[in-house]
């Protein structure tokens, strides 16, 4: 995956990741010299769609277009989350400061008004000056721009158009567009770019309705950003308590395996399961039966570990001792061996991490899901046909990890 490079080069502003656009994806209006937001990353390996950069000021610069007189000392920078009430108050404050003879206000008004008359200068005049100081031709143009949701991103060259539309709809809170996109392809709720799915963008921008739509479509409420920031923390950092509660509630319903702490040891039960050491597995479970549910650092149960190693004897013992064949892998931190396969059930690991059809069939025989994607991956044409004859809409279904049936037809191993 390649970081954003809007210019296709490697120098100057070729590392810039974001540009202010309207909700329809067009570049901001050229009828005014408005502030243009450009997010620049010093290291090309950094994340271009980070949820925190723009708000926390990490490597983000606001480039203000120069005014006609070439002096931007008194140019105002429109805040990323400006609202109209704040701007009306600023206009009143500017008027009061001008009438009080404050030097900064007098100088600012002198730059945007020709021969202003202090005795007749009124609130509508202060609003006009304020708009011009922000780079707008008039107060009405400033008000119009504030009504347009802003998405400080440009489209990467290597992103699918439907994924980009979904991210943009999430960022602008376009609930109707999101529903239309997800009705056509629910898997878009779990797509994204540079480890930034649409839900992360909707949370960052504070769009509760969009958050609900994405969660209903299967978006991950416990997702972790590239730099380790979880969505609940992201919401609360911005004062979005209702969104934080919605995310927490969705995460509880999802019931993933809880990962151990990042510094936790590799527990003996996980080591034994991965090594197919059935004697040690039995001995450990005899002493403490609940170890069968224990999550490792990444959020995998002993059954996940055994399946990932094709340790079939251990798989059978763990299932005999009550291991949950439907357990969802948690989302712990990755390590040298790779990222956590979040939301993978054991059969997903067998099929799409190992290509191990024998273990997959063992799991199916012990009650694992035998849905369309699994049947397709196992080459069971009769079951695929039966499932689709029963309900053709199943072709759109995705497993909890996001895998769907069509890509599975070419993944079978021998």
Strand content: under 5%
Largest sheet: 3 strands, antiparallel
CATH level-4 homologous superfamily of the largest domain: Ankyrin repeat-containing domain
What is the C-alpha radius of gyration, as a whole number of Å? 27 Å
Backbone structural class: mainly alpha
Spans where pLDDT lies below 50 across 5 or more residues:
1-73, 410-414
What is the helix fraction of residues, given as a range?
A: 40-55%
Corresponding CATH architecture of the largest domain: Alpha Horseshoe
Question: In the CATH scheme, what's the topology name of the largest domain?
Answer: Serine Threonine Protein Phosphatase 5, Tetratricopeptide repeat
Total helices: the number is 20
Shape: elongated
Mean pLDDT: 77
Let me know the number of strands.
Answer: 5
Q: What is the CATH domain class of the largest domain? A: Mainly Alpha
Overall tally of structural domains: 4
Order of helices and strands: EEEHEHHHHEHHHHHHHHHHHHHHH
Strand order of the largest sheet: 1-3-4
Report how far apart the termini are.
30 Å
